[in-house]
Amino acid sequence: MSTSLINTKLQPFNATAYHNGDFVELSEKDVLGKWSIFFFYPADFTFVCPTELGDVADHYAQLQEMGVEVYSVSTDTHFTHKAWHDTSDTIGKITYPMIGDPTGRITRSFGVMIEEEGLALRGTFVMNPEGEIKIIETHDLGIGRSAKELVRKVQAAQYIATHDGEVCPASWQPGEETLAPSLDLVGKI
């Protein structure tokens, strides 16, 4: 049995990322103050991973407009991220930071390390500006994620963060009605 990380705080970390042609140092302090997505994937130069990372790249401008930063993370090094970025058309369109986690410290702190392989599961974590994890999605290695659905989930998380007492029903989209839990709704939905 595992304990959920929902509403827990981002753990301290220091890492090097490949970002827009440079190697940059990042820590938890760089993440705080804005909505963030940590997008873990198994490895560079693989098969499902570039489809997911490319999908996120295609939705990155929309996420940025929503005040969200994306950090992709694998147990590869930042050097490997650069090599992949330089040789793949799909990965070459990425403009969000690609964090290298060769020690697995960040991957373990999010509970997505496959110890026997030294790789990460496909884990997505959305954090509010206070660094609290609000959304977790974890997939087996062969199952790719949808950036479109990720955007919708972030929109819902941002909505409920600013609308106390409201909740978003299944498949909620911005502009649609929400629910205000109350005794009057019990058994009526």
UniProtKB/TrEMBL annotation:
Reactions the enzyme catalyzes: a hydroperoxide + NADH + H(+) = an alcohol + NAD(+) + H2O
Active-site residues, Swiss-Prot/TrEMBL: 49
InterPro entries membership: AhpC, AhpC/TSA, Peroxiredoxin, Peroxiredoxin_AhpC-typ, Peroxiredoxin_C, Thioredoxin-like_sf, Thioredoxin_domain
A single GO molecular function term of this UniProt record: thioredoxin peroxidase activity
GO BP terms: cell redox homeostasis; cellular response to stress; hydrogen peroxide catabolic process; response to oxidative stress
UniProt domain Thioredoxin: residue ranges: 4-159
Protein name: Alkyl hydroperoxide reductase C
Taxonomic source organism: Pseudoalteromonas porphyrae
Source organism phylogeny: Bacteria, Pseudomonadati, Pseudomonadota, Gammaproteobacteria, Alteromonadales
